Amino acid sequence: KKISDILEKSAPKPGVPADLQNLLSQYFGENRSVIEIEELKLSDSCFLPANDLTHSFSSYLKEICPKWAKLRKNHKEKKSVVMLVICSSALRSLELIKSMAAFKGDCKVLKLFAKHIKIKEQMNMLEKGVFHIGVGTPGRVKALVEQDGLCLNSTKYMILDWNWRDQKLRRMMDIPEIKKETIDLLEMCIIKLCREGSVKLGLF
Question: Which PANTHER family does this UniProt record tie to the protein (predicted)?
Answer without folding.
Answer: PROTEIN CMSS1
